[in-house]
Amino acid sequence: MPRIVILGGGPGGYEAALVGAELGAFVTLVDSDGVGGACVLTDCVPSKALIATSAAMTELAAAPSLGVRLRDGGHVLPEAGWDAGAAPGPGLPPGIGVDIERVHARVRGLAAAQSRDIETRLEKEAVRVVHARGRLVGPHAVEVASGEAFFGDIILIATGASPRVLPNIEPDGERILTWRHIYDLRELPEHLIVVGSGVTGAEFASAYQALGANVTLVSSRDRVLPGEDPDAAKVLEEVFQRRGVTVLSRARAEAARRVGDSVEVDLADGRTITGSHVLMAVGSVPRTSDIGLAEVGVRRTPTGHIEVDRMSRTSVPGVYAAGDCTGVLPLASVAAMQGRIAMWHALGEAVTPLRLGTVSSNIFTEPEIATVGISQKMIESGAVAAQTTILPLARNPRAKMQGITDGFVKLFCRPGSGSVLGGVIVAPRASEMIFPVSLAVANGLTVDQVAHTFTIYPSVSGSLTEAARIAMPRDLFASF
C-alpha cells in the first residue's frame, strides 16, 4: 500500500487526501490551522457568507422600485433581540440595518462547521489527520513539532498563503486589519478604508457598503480591478459611484496609524485620509518559508512560490505541490484540481494535465463578475484571434422584471468556425450563469451549438443564447 503524506489541509490538501484514500493509499494529512485551511476558516467561505448578507441588503434597497412597501407606514416593526439603532443600509428606511456582531458570528460558525464536515469526511475515508505544524526533513519525510516523523512514498505540499503586509502598515487586529481579522469586529465600521482594488478589495468594498458602512477604496492603479475585463471593471466602478463608494485612483498607501478611535492613512501623493478602520487587501504571500524546502531541494520562484508543472510535480521526484503556495492561480477550485492531479499522477492513474484555459472564476461583488477562457486583453494584444459579442442585460426581459439594470454577457469566439473561446458575465449570481460558457469552452462547442440550445423564457440566462445567435458566423446563413 503506497504511503502519502500531505502538508497542509486546505482544498489542495484535503481533496488530494480523498483521492489518495479512494485509490487505496495510506494517507496522513498534517495541518496546523484547521482542516479546510485558510480557504474555509478565514478566506473564501467566511467572505462569501458575509457577502450573502450584503446581497440581501442590496435586494432590500432595490425592493421599493419593484413596488414593495414595508409595514407600519414604511417601517419594519422591531423584532425581539433586534438592535433598533442599527445603522441603516444604503437606501433603506430607519430601523433596517445589520447586527454586525450577529452577522460575523454566523460567518465564523459556518466556517467552523464546514471545517468539521471536511474532517469528518476525511476520517470516514480513513485519512489520518495530524493537527500539528510540519516541515520536510527529507524528500520522503515530514516532521512535526513533537519530533514525530511521518514517512511517505509521495509528499504533497499544500501550505497555502497569508495576507501580504506592507512595511509601514502593521495590522493590529482592531483598527488596522487584514481580511482574517475583520470577522472579529463587534461593530460595523463607520468608515472603512480598503487598501487594494483587486478582487479581495473590491469584494469587501462592495459588501461593507451594502451593509451600511461608508467605504473609501484606495487603488494604486487607474481603475478598480486592473487585472480583470475592462468592460466589467467599468460597470463595477459606475455601480460603486452610484452607491456612494469613494474610489481614489492612482493612490498608493504608504503608512497607517491609529489616532484614538480613528485610523489615518498616508498616501504617496501627500494626502492623508481618515477612517474608523482600514482593511489591507494588497495580495498574499506563499507560506513556503521554514518548512524545509531548500534543504530538500524544492525550487521556488523569486516570489517564494513553489515551482510546479501541469502535473503538480516539483523539482524533487516524488514531491508534489498544490494551491496558493504554487502561485499558479489563487483559486480554491484550481488548488483542489492540482491536488487531485498530483494523486492521480503519482498513483499511476490516467490524468490530463492542468488546463488553465478552462478555469472559470468569479468576483463576488454586486453585481458579480464571472469569467472563463481567453480575455479581452489577449485579443487586443494580438495573442489570440477572436471576435467579441457583448449584450447588455438591460435588454433582457427577466432582468427588466427583476429591476436589473447593470451588467452584460460577453462571448469570445473564433472567426470562421465560431468556437467559443471564452466569456464574461456581469450580473447578479454570475457565478451560477458562467457554467454553460465553461462547458462550451472546455468541450470546444461553437456559438451555433449554444444558440440552438433551449433556455427558459424569460430567464437572464437567455442572454447567453441571444449573444450566441448574434455571434454566429454569417456564412452559416449563406445557403438559406
From TrEMBL:
Name used for this protein in its record: NAD(P)H dehydrogenase (quinone)
Ranges of residues in domain FAD/NAD(P)-binding: 3-339
Family membership noted in the UniProt record: Belongs to the class-I pyridine nucleotide-disulfide oxidoreductase family.
Disulfide-linked positions: C39-C44
EC number: 1.6.5.2
UniProtKB keywords: FAD, Flavoprotein, NAD, Nucleotide-binding, Oxidoreductase
EC class: oxidoreductase
Cofactor entry: FAD
Gene source species: Candidatus Protofrankia datiscae
Upper classification of the organism: Bacteria, Bacillati, Actinomycetota, Actinomycetes, Frankiales
Chain sites annotated for binding NAD(+): G196, S197, G198, V199, T200, G201, A202, E203, G283
